[in-house]
Amino acid sequence: MQHKAWHPYNSLPAHPKPLDIVSATGHNLRLANGDSLLDGIASWWTAIFGYNHPVLVEAITQQSKQLSHIMFGGLSHPAAEALAEKLAQQSPATPSVFFSDSGSVAVEVALKMARQYWQAEGAPEKKRFVALRNGYHGDTWGAMSVSDPDSLHQQFRDASQHTLFIDAPNYGFENHTNNDCNIQAIEACFIQYHQQIAAFILEPIWQGAGAMNFYQPSYLHAIRTLCDRYQILLICDEIATGFGKTGRYFAHQHTQITPDILCLGKALTGGMLTLAATCSSKKISDAISQNQPKRFMHGPTYMANALACACANASLALLDDMDWQPKVNQWQQEMTTKLQTLRTAAHVKDVRVLGHVGVIEMQSPQLAASVQPLAQAQGVWLRPFGTWVYLTPAYTMNSAEREQLLTTTTDAVLKAADTEANNSIMTSI
Questions:
Q1: DSSP state of 73
Q2: Is the pLDDT of residue 427 over 60?
Q3: 249 carries an active-site annotation
Q4: What is d(CA 201, CA 180) in angstroms, rounded to the nearest whole number?
């Protein structure tokens, strides 16, 4: 029997067939046939320094000579302790750091943490969650339960049957339209259900895979105020948004709020190894630790993997040393300038940019998908999904690479739109 790898969001055998990549260096993927593709999405927005950055490779190499992995139950190691300290410094409101294997698991941990906190506080009935429409928090069962069931997880709608969903806010980072109606709907929900609600979970500022859109910081501030008023924890899922993506180290820092629980992953290791963290306030960790069973009931086998923690420490230091914010601001300026030329193009519904995230929203998923082979033919790797052609490139691309990425993307979108327009004419004839 022939065994084959089953790829994400694909059939077996795969259709379409994945590209065979034999190496990756800098910002380029090398195919088995010798071709090279400039990666415009940094491997699902993780490889923020490109591939095989020598600082990260060296960190992993040196750590492997000392300690590759130990169980974290009853044992510890310097790389994990140092990483916990660094994350606590970046988010002082959530200094209690629980490591796990992936972003989806970090969300699972956050949900369990919120439930166990309220059990410790003598309110076990507070076990439901509130989430936003168009939200996406991962593919495991608990993470799906707080993700929009009408988005990527329609086949598993029953996972969300106990979650209370609120309409997404008015989109636009600088949109001055108020969200009063939405905020009133949230408060009405809280008034009715606050004695049952453990936490409100959201992606701050940028809703990723469920919407590829941005919202106002003032909306996030209003949610924090309501959570405080009705004694509901606020979970900020920064797995996609963290480490500079939106122009702030963490996206919730666009406003003066702090989460009760913070989920981190993706770019934590610079895209080298899988690692995630769920960080909580001292209030939460103290309550769980001081009340029966006096321990948090979760323990991933590979949590705090030493290689991954060493890599993350090096990645966070690299982020600080590279002065990332001007680079992200530069990306925002260049993408805004280049992509806004598509606003009037046929079959382009919207163009939006924040930080190093650029999104071209097409009129249909089929049209968005047609951009991929056109870009690939010009040496650029994109992976549109839904109606969105998006860019989340490495911060470290040079000017020639930035020009190649933006020009190729723009050309591919225009060609796809022209083809669609021509097909529409032929159909009408």
A1: S
A2: no
A3: no
A4: 19
| Nearby residues of 376 by Cβ (< 8 Å), 6 or more positions away | 37, 382
Q: Which two tokens stand for residue 207?
A: 């809703």
Convert the pLDDT of each residue in 195-232 to its tens digit. Answer: 999 999 999 999 999 999 999 999 999 999 999 999 99
pTM of the model: 0.95
Buried b (16+ CB within 10 A) or exposed e, 61-77: eebeeeeebeebeeeeb
In order of their start, the domains of the chain are 55-321 (3.40.640.10), 323-428 (3.90.1150.10)
Catalytic residue (choose from 39, 101, 148, 237): 237
Contact between 378 and 411 (Cβ < 8 Å): yes
Q: 386-409 pLDDT, tens per residue?
A: 999 999 999 999 999 999 999 999
List CB contacts of 177: < 8 A, sequence separation 6 or more. Answer: 170
Say whether 266 is catalytic: yes
Among this protein's residues, is 230 annotated catalytic?
no
The alpha carbon torsion through 22, 25, 29, 34 (nearest 10 deg) reads -60
Catalytic residue flag (residue 219): no
Strand order in the sheet with 233-237: 96-100, 276-280, 261-264, 233-237, 197-202, 128-132, 164-166
Active-site annotation holder among 51, 117, 136, 390: 136
